[in-house]
User: What shape does this take?
Amino acid sequence: MSSWLGNIARRAKRARTKRLAWSRTRSQTTLPPGIRGLGARLQMLLGGQAATTTVVIFIFLVGVTTGLLMMPFAAATGEATPLADALFTATSAICVTGLTTLDMATHWSPAGHLIVFVALQVGGIGVMTLATLLAVIASKRLGLSVRKMMAGDVDPSRLHEKEGSGNHGMRLGDVKGLLKTVFISVILIELALAAIIIPRLIVWGLDPVTALWQGGYLAVSAFTNTGFVPLVDGLAPFVADPIMVFTIGFGVFLGSIGFPVIYAIARAVRTARQRRQRRTWDHARLGMHARLTLSTTTLLLVIGAIAIAALEWSNEDTLGDKSPGVKGMTAVFTSMMARSGGFSTVDTAEFSGATLLVLDMLMFVGGGSASTAGGIKVTTLAILFLAAFAESRGNQDIVVYERRIPSDVVRLAVSVVLWGASIVAVSTIALMRVTEAPLDRILFDVISAFATCGLSAGFTSADLPDSAKFILSATMLLGRVGTVTLATALSGTHRQTVYRRAKERPIVG
Assistant: This one.
């Protein structure tokens, strides 16, 4: 009996070996030898780490964009833009932040606007997503290694794992569908936004050609959560225009919830339609990640709008001179923009100190994971609150939507918050050393840079010293790359031990 089982096992092993050899041969014949060699050398140079690849690609794109923006043809005056301003704008565009030290409407030439447009589109879609799309186009197939790299970009906690289990919010089998969702949603959503914004600009008084490119620019800037505005007067003239305000706000919301959530919603709608047609017996349901993202995002949006309206209701410089309807609409819009949008229909610098603190907290949280938004992400905040609630109830497990959250996810959430707070603290201290601005203004713009939001309390301007611009540029890059991705890139592989130390409890609290 044992010999019979042994023969079966050996045959199965030989069959697996043949399939693996055939798969390797097929993959090797897919790409030209030169490209295969370049990919192997690049992988060896970067240590095979997707996180390191992400950091290197972001730095490379920022460098290329900076060089292009420094060219004389990129400026409206025909003169070369200084390095500090070009680097700041390039980092803000690639990191889809929206902070700027220049007047974006008047400083750049049409070529400069085109460079910024392409940069924010690349940054919004995601460098790793774009790289994966190019790999799929080049190889005509989506291999396991590419799927793991893409899944690691969507769910950075996967970077610590050596096996692709399917119990995460993003499974390896979903990567191909997610890529289609990214590509289709970017095109459809931005076209839909532009189709609404362009007529409003024409009605406002712009000629059709100017309205066409500025409307498309605004649509891309809204969906990518960048916040760049090509209009000379900004969005202030549209403060009482509900169509323009809610169109941009809805575009920012879709960009901030994340592509995995959009994919989950699309998959649920498709399953529900197939079930009505009796083509499947599956139930349409959203996963825990999608439900947690949507519920937390909505809750923060409502709480932020109520707080902003209550604190600024009688402030004549912001909401005080407007009708009650416009006050409520502006409060909701500002709450949404603080999540990473960066647009503003009122002067953010005129907000009271209490309102700036509320916006600080909203910006630090940011939007959804694997989205165009920054911050520590709403799921991180939700997991920490769920952990605190479970601890107060004496529950051993953290349970939400009938699902248990693993303990390593909680540790990862704590790490993300600590890394984010450390980056904000170090940047704030450094800026206080090189400038004489008040703490609340510096802290606001630092958090805005880290969370890739783009709102400013008046600190970020052309009067900043070059050293301050470089510090804020580094803060934007660290915030966009992501604390988890950066930590993984620096720490290398995740170590696993075969033993555990004796347990001893310290005093906490």
